[in-house]
Every structure is written in structure tokens, then in C-alpha cells.
Amino acid sequence: MRQGSRRETWVGWGLVAPSLVLFALVYVYPVVYSAWVSVYEWDLATPARYVGFRNYRELWSVEFWEVISNTVVYSAGVVVLSQGLGLALAILLNNRTRLGALFQASIFSSYVVSWVAVSLLWIWLLDPQYGLVTYLLRLVGLPAVNWLGDHRIALWSLVLVTVWKTVGYPLVIYLAGLQAIPGDLYEAAALDGARGWQRFRHITWPLLTPTTLFLLITLTVASFQGFDIVRIMTQGGPVTATMIYVYYIYEQAFQYFKLGKASAAVVVFFTLIVALTLLQWLLFRRRLHYTT
Amino acid sequence: MRALTIAALALVALVEVFPYLWMLATSLKDLPSVTQFPPTLLPHPPHWDNYAKAWSSGPFLRYAVNNAVQTLGILALQLLFGCLAGYGFSKVRFRGRDACFLLVIACLIVPPQVRFVPLYMLFSKVGLLNTYASLILPYAVSALGTFLIRESFMQISDDIVDAARVDGAGLFTIIFRIMAPIAKPAIVAFSLFSVVYHWNDFFWPLVMTTNDAVRTLPIGVAMLREEGTGARWHIIMAGSMFVVAPVLVVFAVAQRHIIRAFTFTSLK
């Protein structure tokens, strides 16, 4: 890069400095500060006490593994279901008609609606006494399900509501991916007699690999961050059946005032996100599609 | 085959949209018909006063104003800092530029869930909890916004900048009157993304505020369920509409732009 004049250097720094100061304060500082607090025991009321890695060892508990397992189940459920459904819908919608645009908009609309409203709406729909879902199940002769009160089912109820709300996102991303596939590939395949499943298996799916990987990582990171739905629909319960990672951090910090332990959990969480992001970066550098 | 496709899509679209109609229907019922089993679809007569009841069951005008101040305050600062830094990172050459830009990119991977505990403690120490600053400042700069604005500034030819300079345009005129209008598609897309996110945001205000004077609509709506007793779902659904309706109206008007905004901001 050609170095600019002295004056240009001043102008450049003047333009980016306000942003840099703010980025340092509200992004970099929190990461560094979390790492620092994570080796202290601190409840805000009494002075912080250095405890080394004890907070991390304390995380290594039965309770924490339950949180991890809940988070993995929730994330895997959301990612697999919304991505699978999103892909299926995108393939069905992959022609530009007015009806198609209407379907797409209807399905995507939930994505921009507040989590608070969606969570409240679904508590009401799933209400074991007066809920619409309860009524519909009874109508077709199925037994009532205690969607949010049964500890074996509650987490899956949250998965389904999340998929319902967010499926529009993988749908539009897959549609963009599908529309980038050159049509003459399909024509050539048709000449070779490929159709239906073969077309999908040998053209669509391989060419969508970058999109699939992008969604896989983005949706995993996004679902790791789930909080609102738990806070409003179940508060982590029944007992700890829906206690997922961020809700756990929140409780440790603001219910039990264990700032050190909460910070240790934040550090672990951030490490996971960095690892996933690096993975994504590595995958995309190796261009995983076989386009022309 | 084609009929089957349409039927399948229609079914999914119905499952996605019908709950909102149910929300609307519930919001117009009275208590006896809310708890009626089997439920009825249409409220008769519609109880529009549920909206007034929900609105007056808390300081909802305050919440709405706060929500707007938060959302627009964040957007204004993000665009201001984003345009300044975007120009610096794309059109000005200076030592250390690339390293600084790398720092901004690194901030892309720091989600709010990593930032809330330290920033809560910081704001609590300097007495900024329960202020607009605690809602707006943490989002005043956006790594995504800066990145997108820089990208589209980079695509603008240097000749345009030089020509403006020859005509005597100052730095800020060049950035805000010449560059920003050309980069409008990116700026609009990012703005829609930002506004939808912060209007709906529940997590951040929940952590930073305990005082109605600065609380926002999503908090107020969530509290409708915690107060009061029994199955007042007609009131809760009416209240939910306060936060949902503005977004759905904007979505109905600008859905193509919004869908493009969300694909655009993620595929970059």
C-alpha cells in the first residue's frame, strides 16, 4: 500500500479513532475483563478474592454438564430441523411466481417478529387447558401433551417454537444459493437422463455445500445464544430441563451474584464461538464447491 | 405434482401465519370466551377496549417512546460512526489502517451474551445503569455496519472523490453528501437489519434496566404476564400487538427490501 501524506494520516486516524475507542470499550474490554474476573470470587458486595482456576473447576459439575447437554440438544435440534425444512421449502419455492413470493413472505415474517411476542403467543397456544394446540390434538383424538411442564418434552417444545420462528432465514439463504446455480447444468443433466432425486444428489446438493456450511455455523452460533425464549417460556424449568447456556450465565450473574463463575462461563462460551468461527473461516478458504 | 407442491407450501404458510391471526382473535375476546372450550375462532362482539386496558396496565407510552429512542439512537450513531470509519478505512491511506480494520472485524464475533456481564459491572460502577446510555452506548458502533459501509465505499471510484474535492467540497460533505447517497442500498439494508433487531431486543434492556422510566416495549409486554392473575390472555395478546404490529406493518410494506437486507447482511 502506498503510504499517504502526513496530512492524510491525521485525517485517517481522526475518522477511525472515535469508532476504535468505542469498539475497544464495548467489545474488547468486556472480553479482557471477563477473563480477568473469571479467576476471582466476587459477589459485588464484598471485595473480590483471587481464586485461580477454581471457578473453572466449579463449572465442571453435574449441573454444568446438564446445561451443556441441554444446549447441545437445543442447538442440534434447531439447526438440523430448520436447515432441513428450510432447504426443502427453498427447493419447492425455487421459481419466481407471485404465489411463491407470498409464501416466502409469510414464512419469513416470523423471523422479524419479537421473541417476546412469539414466546408469549406459544405459551398461550400450548396452554394445557385452553390452548389451540391442545384443542387441535384432542380434535384428532390424540392425548393431551404437557408441552412446557413435562421435563422430557419441554426442551423439544422450545426447539419447535424456535424452528417455527426462524425457518424463514435458512429458507431465504438457500433460495439465494439455488438461484446462483446455473440453469444449463440442469439442462445438461436432463440430456443425460438425470431427474428428481439424481438431480438433487449430483447437482443441487454439492453446489449448495458452501451455503449449507455457512448456515450450519451461523445457525449453531445463533442458537447457542438463545435466551429470550427460555426466560419467557420456561425460566429454565421444569427444574433444569430447559436450562441452556446463556440463561445459565444470566442466572449465575444476576440471581446468585457469582460474577467470577459467570465470567468463567462467559470465557468458555466465547472460546467455543471463536473456535466455530475459525472453523468456518478455514472451510471457506478451501472453497468447498465444484463450480465452473 | 405442481398442485402437491402448492398444497405443501400453503400448509406451511398457514402454520406460520395462523398463530398471528389467533393472537389477533384472542386480543379481541373477553375473558369467558378466552377460557371457553372448545375455543371459537371469531370474537363476537370484538372487544377493542382490550387494547386500551393493556395500554393502561403499565406506562406503555413511556415504553414505546423509550423503545423508539433506543432504536433510533443506536441507528443514528451506528451510521454516523460507520460512515466516518468506513470512509477512513476505504479512501484514506494511513499507517496502521489494516491493523485497525482487523480489530473491527474481530469484534464481529463478540456477541452481546459475551459483553453483558462486564458492561453491566462497568455501568454500575459509573452509575449509568437505568439510563439511555446503558441501552445505546454498547451498540453505538457496529462491526457489521462499518464493514458493509466500507465495502460499498470501496466500490465508489476515487475519481468521484477527487472531482468533489476539486469543486471545493470538504471532508464531511464528501462523506455524507456524496459517498453515503451512492452507498444507499447497503446503508438501507443495514438500517433495516439494525432497526428490527433493536426494536425487538429483550435481552439487553432486561439486563441494563430495572426502572420503568427507561424500560422498553419488549420488557413491558413480557411483564404483562408476570402481573395480574389467571388467564388474562386477551390482555397479554393485545399488549403483544404493541411490539409486533409496527414490525409487521413495516414488513408488509417493505418485505422485499427486508428479506434482501437479511440475506445481504449475512452473506457478506
What does this structure look like?
The complex is a heterodimer of chains A (292) and B (268). Chain A has 292 residues and is mainly α. Chain A has a single domain, classed as MetI-like fold (Orthogonal Bundle). Chain A contains 14 helices and 2 strands, in the order H-E-E-H-H-H-H-H-H-H-H-H-H-H-H-H. In chain A, strand 1 (40-41) and strand 2 (49-50) form a beta hairpin. In chain A, helix 1 crosses helix 14 (259-285) and helix 3 (62-93) crosses helix 8. Chain B has helices spanning 2-27, 31-34, 49-56, 60-91, 97-106, 112-125, 132-136, 143-154, 158-166, 171-182, 184-200, 203-208, 217-226, 233-267. The relative contact order of chain B is 0.15. Chains A and B meet through helix 1, helix 3, helix 4, helix 5 and helix 6 of A and helix 1, helix 4, helix 5, helix 6 and helix 11 of B.
Features:
heterodimer, A: 292 residues, mainly alpha, two-stranded antiparallel sheet, 2 strands, 1% strand, disordered C terminus, B: 268 residues, 14 helices, 75% helix, 0% strand
Task: Summarize it.
The complex is a heterodimer of chains A (292) and B (268). Chain A has helices spanning 6-37, 54-59, 62-93, 98-109, 115-125, 132-139, 154-166, 168-179, 183-191, 196-207, 209-224, 228-233, 245-254, 259-285, and strands spanning 40-41, 49-50.
Q: Please summarize the sheet with the most strands of chain B.
A: none
Write down how many β-strands of chain A occur, each being a DSSP E stretch of 2 or more residues. Answer: 2
What is the CATH domain class of chain A?
Answer: Mainly Alpha
Count of helical regions of chain B:
14
Structural class of chain A: mainly alpha
CATH topology of chain A: MetI-like fold
- Shape summary of chain B: globular
Mean pLDDT, all residues of chain B: 92
Oligomer: heterodimer
- What's the order of the H and E elements of chain B? HHHHHHHHHHHHHH
Q: How many structural domains does the protein architecture of chain B include? A: 2
Main β-sheet of chain A, in a few words? 2 strands, antiparallel
Strand content of chain B: under 5%
The CATH class name of the largest domain in chain B reads: Mainly Alpha
Please indicate the percent range of residues of chain A in DSSP E strands (runs of 2 or more): under 5%
Low-confidence stretches of chain A: 288-292
